[in-house]
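Listing S7. Sequence submitted for prediction.
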Amino acid sequence: MKVHLWRDANCNRVCVVYDSSTKVPDGLLTGNVVQLGNFDECLATHALDADGHGLFWGQYCLAGLAVERAWPPPNASAPANNFSNHLLAALAGHRLQWAVCLPASCAAEDLEAHLQARMPELLLADAEAPPFELRALLLATVFAIVMASTAYDVTHPDTNKDALWLAFSVRKNAAALFATRAHGQMASVNGIKFLSMAWVLLFHKYCVMVETPNDNSDVVLEGLKYDWTQMPISNGGTMAVNSFFVIGGLLLTHGFIRDRVAGRPFSLVSFYVYRYIRITPVYAVVVAVYATLLYHMGSGPLWNPVMAMHRENCRHHWWRNLLYINNYQPVTSELCVVQTWYLAADMQLYWLSPLLLWPLWRWPRVGRALLATLLVVPLASTFWITYARRYPWADAKDVSNEIRNSYFPLIHASAYARSAPFLVGVALAWALHLTRKNRLRLPAVVVALAWVSLGCISWTITYALYIYYKPDHAYSALEAASFQALHPLGWGLIVAWLIFACERGYAGPVAALLSWRWWQPLSRLTYTAYLVHFAVFYYDLGVTRSPGHYTHYNVVHIVLGDLVLILLLASAAALAFELPVLNIDRALLKPKQGASASAPAPAKAMQRLSVPAVALGAPRPSLRSNGSAPGAAHVNVAFEDDLPAPAPEHDQNNSFNFQLNYFSIEVFQLQ
């Protein structure tokens, strides 16, 4: 075969085809399992006959093979019987991918026949990019509206401007978005919001890097499990989402109490409707971009496997997102905008919150008893489900799809399992309300004990998983159930104490740090940054041309660059979609009033961009400097689609049982 190729009249072109394909790789045992060949060289290949007519063009194919672990996993101490078993043991849990460059005249079936002759149980699939869709013109329309509104704002210096014409003005919205003001109530929330979001983003980046081609991919995963310096990223990052449930419950209850103290009527319809129209438009835009535009914004060896899946998920399941029920998606691989399970859980808790807030206000004793009772629900339900189904502590890399698809809606993303930190936030708001007039004086010993105790809880939550990850650790359903049930509550108590201490003067320099005025504009971007950050990570993965090499320096370098880009995209989304919706709401939905009272100045009104108002009654008063509105609930930015791993039950069988269960070929042609 090689002789014939070299003697071909288009020898050079055939050599290019061969050169751009993957050869037998080295470093398989260290995780070098993704071999991408040369994507651009393959697609640029073309051969002509003597008359100048095309003979063939290059077609890039990416074959993938998943090697699953046996379940239950084999005993870690059992020796491999031969080299093949040793190799499969090292590759278990990985997805091997390798590039093949073929003439465009070859169909996927040709490669399928060739590979299935050697691997008869494999499944083949192919995909090609469709033409650019007309719906992409919607972005151009929005851009034109933004430019027109900005031009109107700039060219009409008078103060009597039409509010609707100014709704999309970049000049006006940017001034509100990036404004800083003197510290107000709960100013520390701004710092906690942004730092928690950055923590979540860092963790998500590591999750994507596990799937990114590296010649030492195993180092990434092993470091997240066993490296004490990286465990705060992997383990703490998965817990940081609970910070936003605490903040959501806190700000919702704080606004509810403030409206009731002011004597404003409570409208349940407005409570629900305003929240929905406040956070949904920009969310819907992101879903639409995933379903249409994102797929056409790049190319690369991994582009189809990454982007096509997310596009199809959003095309078929967008309605789950807009109804805020996507956290109960029965198949996790079909999630649209995977990280937005959090928005669904948060919205569901918001829908149910009047059932608790109203008794707390009207019948305090009954309300407090109800709050205590409700705190038991997530603890008991999470404990029992984890124990009965033998779910793991954390990390779902090696878990089967069946376990993953049940674990995600029942534990990871369910509103009831995440309600403990939300209820802690509700309790914190009432504690701050009850101590607002008489300054609470806690003995220094009590304060010190609180800091030490919660520091120990934080340390335990972050590093307890080291025990679970140890290869020789025997799985215990009791341990797993206890950890799953208690860690959200523990994290909620940590965040609640941090906010309480800052508000009541027990945090010292910590309060000064978290209340830094420049956290204000950054915290306003948390919602849109949370919505767009995975798109940036997916883009990075999709355009990868060759494997990299993982080092801590490379990670820091990449993450800082991604963070800047995410904040820029978040700013654009806020200016083009989020703030204009708020302006239109104020112009159309706010009850008409005289010059009295309550309409906030435009700059202050924009303070609400990351804290949507939830309780409408009469006129809305001006907003506080901490970014909360009356009856406001923080639009939490949160966590991930990462799933805990299966409970490792060690099998005493010395044999290795692996399955090669999935194979696909992605086909790319130069359009």
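Caption to Listing S7: primary sequence and predicted structure tokens for the chain studied. Residues 552-588 form the longest helix (37 residues). The chain has two domains: 2-124, 182-590.
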